[in-house]
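Postdoc handover notes: sequence design on the structure in folder B. Input tokens:
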């Protein structure tokens, strides 16, 4: 088998592999670079992988996070996730990361909780947070919503808008990008990338798009994009029409996405996939979501790169 075949076979049998490091997902989002991976075998089979996104800029080669790949980092099969076993695996994975790098930056997946071997090699770590819900009991999720969401904002939004699914990616992007247009910013993801990702997710029936339509005018107030793997529904993207935000349609869409994940997908978890932005984080808490920590691991080998990054900040 080719190395790619090995990676695909491993992913097919990994029980809790995050959506974002599936090979077809990486094919879709690794725009402007290429992805590769390290692997370690134990007892005649692959026990761990470490995918990475390799880019080049101004003659420098570096590892970065692909757009919309929320988490990467080393992934070990569950039977190898013990302190005694994982150190040697992580060391062997590290040996396979490209050596001629100017810099390295990755957000690790939730299962990657041991970064000590990286610390010994001069990497640094920042703890970041996503927010997630256990959605086995939807009644309990509803009761844990902030009272104003449960009693005011969601019922009020239902009076004004109707939630529908099945619209096109273009309809989604038309509303999603308006928030950036209002701020004079370019959207963070190219439409070509989103088209590739949507096609990959759609062909596997692992996505749904939600629209909040005005009951009187038909105008779209808010949109949301949900993707999922075997265990988790990921609230991957969302957006509002800046002129219609006061309807609360975005809050209603979030609730409908949670309900869809429970009733249709029947997955145990709903993950907001970030964010650390203060106003956005507050909305996550209002839904009763719990913090879930993950590691951002970084290192710069090039002094010029490090200085440039400090000046950019």
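Designed sequence:
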């Amino acid at each position: 088998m080719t190395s790619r075949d090995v990676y695909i076979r491993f992913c097919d049998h990994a029980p809790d592999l995050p959506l974002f490091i599936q090979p077809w997902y990486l094919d879709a989002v690794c725009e402007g670079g290429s992805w590769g991976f390290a692997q370690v075998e134990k007892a005649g089979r692959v026990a761990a992988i470490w995918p990475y996104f390799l880019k080049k800029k101004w003659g420098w080669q570096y590892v970065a996070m692909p757009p919309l790949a929320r988490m990467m980092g080393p992934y070990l099969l569950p039977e190898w996730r013990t302190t005694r076993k994982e150190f040697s695996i992580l060391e062997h994975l590290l040996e396979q990361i490209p050596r001629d790098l100017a810099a390295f930056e990755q957000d690790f997946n939730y299962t990657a909780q041991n970064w000590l071997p990286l610390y010994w090699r001069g990497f640094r770590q920042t703890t970041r947070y996503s927010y997630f819900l256990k959605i086995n009991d939807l009644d309990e999720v509803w009761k844990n919503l902030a009272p104003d969401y449960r009693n005011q904002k969601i019922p009020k939004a239902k009076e004004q808008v109707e939630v529908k699914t099945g619209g096109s990616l273009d309809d989604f992007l038309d509303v999603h990008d308006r928030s950036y247009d209002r701020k004079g910013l370019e959207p963070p993801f190219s439409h070509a990338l989103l088209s590739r990702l949507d096609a990959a997710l759609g062909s596997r029936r692992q996505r749904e798009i939600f629209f909040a339509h005005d009951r009187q005018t038909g105008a779209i107030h808010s949109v949301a994009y949900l993707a999922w793997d075997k265990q988790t529904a990921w609230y991957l993207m969302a957006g509002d029409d800046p002129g219609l935000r006061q309807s609360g349609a975005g809050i209603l869409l979030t609730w409908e996405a949670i309900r869809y994940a429970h009733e249709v997908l029947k997955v145990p978890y709903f993950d907001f996939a970030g964010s650390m932005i203060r106003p956005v984080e507050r909305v996550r808490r209002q839904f009763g979501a719990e913090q879930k920590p993950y590691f951002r691991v970084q290192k710069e080998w090039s002094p010029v790169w490090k200085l440039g990054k400090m000046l950019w900040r």
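Context for whoever picks this up: The two ends are 44 Å apart (CA to CA). Don't rerun without checking with the PI first.
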